């Protein structure tokens, strides 16, 4: 009887707590913060037109504080993001009604899966014994280590299907162990906290307001451009340094995008942030761009003003903005690194963004 009881509860909680097995381009960020930028979540909250306007104004303003944190020392970044998240929660406590706040919390817990059990607000309600808490931590930590190994296997190019199956098995076993550890009352509370099922497969599409370009007064191939003047166009921003070999390896992809989307609403912008003294010479950068047939707009970023405004941390790096000026996709490093096809990946994302409705 106990086995059947557990099996039923396990299948239910697995449905609530399942997560997609995918690489998060914003890995390490507060999951609550990213969740606020998920279109499916905003839709689920059923905001009024007034709420939508205020919600966007709130998140847009916080996004401009978020971007520069991306390349800060870890302690500074963690502190800054904690402040942003706290400000978001405080504002949303006023903007959202109780039902909307409850649903946002439920979706967060579903996304977190079993790790929600270790959040302070959940622990306060669960009232674990000391032994329970230690065992909950051990179970979750062991599963996270195993999942990290699977993620490494994915990045190493191992076949995805068997790894997906192993991931599901790991999460199922984790849930079973936790359910055996919790009392019936704690299991009921877990069920209540995660609420009705939300389709987590809809997540993974965050839209974060991109910073404005810092106009240094030095442009190649173009007069000065502003992102807010490019609404209605998909914008691809890439940071590079002209003597960086990894950046040079990306040039064929940049040329391919420029040619492929030449007559469409796509703008490719290179931001030349120098790594060496030679790369600060505008004439030299201009000469190399001409030699490599890089004919799209290039912004000289000699003082790393754009680099820091975007919180960029590596050469090369590619950012894809939708027609409203929101970051939708990001590719760090070489596009063809270790057999990857980043050129195709980005091209397909550009095509998908072109098919979306224009800004309203």
Question: What is the terminal separation in angstroms?
Answer: 57 Å
Write out the strand line-up for the largest beta sheet, numbering strands in chain order: 1-7-6-3-4-5-2
Instruction: Give the ordered list of helices and strands.
Output: HHHHHHHHHHEEEHEHEHEEH
Counted beta strands:
7
Describe the main β-sheet briefly.
Answer: 7 strands, mixed
- What does the overall shape look like? globular
Q: Percent range for helical residues?
A: 40-55%
How many whole angstroms does the radius of gyration measure? 23 Å
Structural class: alpha/beta
Q: In percent, how much strand structure appears in the residues?
A: 5-15%
